[in-house]
């Protein structure tokens, strides 16, 4: 696995190490079963073990990797039951957030529309960009209702699908951004219309569709 060394920047070395590993999952350089050795990663990234340990511990908390050996980890594989549970949890969290944001109206809805327009203008030319665009959209409703506890739960669930290859497969579409728009705009419009039942139903249907992508 070829990992570039980290350059000094404003972000902490722990955050930088996490970002590099994050990209490795989405680029399929790190797949389920891959072993991650702390000393080896520190040498490859050109940093000390401490920030690497921070990054690995964060990924462990997020359920992406699990301990394996003294100073090592292994990238987790996900069973069908586990995947089903994660999507059920998403339905509960995102379904509630969409309904609540629709009921709040006003500034909450405005924030969702503005956030959506920002996301749709961003490139989706890599698996990482596709993942971030999709996660960003679904996070909009959580952010709009200002519930930090739901935000934490949302991030935990979404980061656990980092190792899925669905993000790379989405790039097979000739019109990735167009597909993204067609799949999500209806949800935004339902929220803007004030129809909480319709917005809730649309987001649940969309989540169900996302679950089926893991079976292709």
From TrEMBL:
Gene3D superfamilies per UniProt: GntR ligand-binding domain-like (1.20.120.530), Winged helix-like DNA-binding domain superfamily/Winged helix DNA-binding domain (1.10.10.10)
SMART domains: FCD, HTH_GNTR
Matching CDD domains: WHTH_GntR
Keyword DNA-binding: yes
Magnesium as UniProt keyword: no
Pfam families cross-referenced by the UniProt entry: FCD (PF07729), GntR (PF00392)
Keywords (A to Z) from UniProt: DNA-binding, Transcription, Transcription regulation
SUPFAM superfamilies reported in the protein's UniProt record: GntR ligand-binding domain-like, Winged helix' DNA-binding domain
Domain (HTH gntR-type): residue spans on this chain: 11-78
Protein name, UniProt field: GntR family transcriptional regulator
Organism: Leucobacter albus
């Amino acid at each position: 696995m070829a990992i570039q060394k980290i350059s000094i920047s404003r972000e902490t070395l722990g955050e930088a190490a996490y970002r590099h590993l994050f990209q490795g999952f989405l680029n399929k350089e790190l797949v389920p079963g891959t072993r991650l050795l702390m000393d080896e990663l520190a040498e490859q990234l050109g940093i000390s073990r401490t920030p690497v340990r921070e990054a690995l511990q964060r990924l462990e908390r997020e359920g992406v990797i699990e301990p394996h050996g003294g100073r090592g980890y292994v990238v987790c594989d996900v069973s069908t039951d586990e995947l089903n549970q994660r999507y059920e949890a998403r339905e509960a969290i995102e379904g509630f957030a969409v309904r609540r944001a629709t009921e709040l109206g006003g500034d909450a809805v405005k924030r969702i529309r503005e956030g959506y327009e920002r996301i749709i203008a961003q490139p989706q030319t890599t698996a990482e960009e596709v993942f971030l665009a999709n996660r960003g959209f679904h996070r909009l409703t959580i952010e709009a209702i200002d519930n930090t506890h739901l935000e934490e739960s949302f991030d935990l669930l979404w980061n656990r699908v980092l190792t899925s290859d669905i993000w790379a497969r989405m790039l097979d579409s000739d019109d990735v951004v167009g597909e993204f728009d067609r799949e999500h705009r209806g949800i935004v419009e339902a929220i803007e219309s004030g129809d909480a039942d319709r917005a809730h139903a649309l987001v649940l249907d969309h989540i169900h569709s996302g679950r089926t992508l893991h079976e292709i």
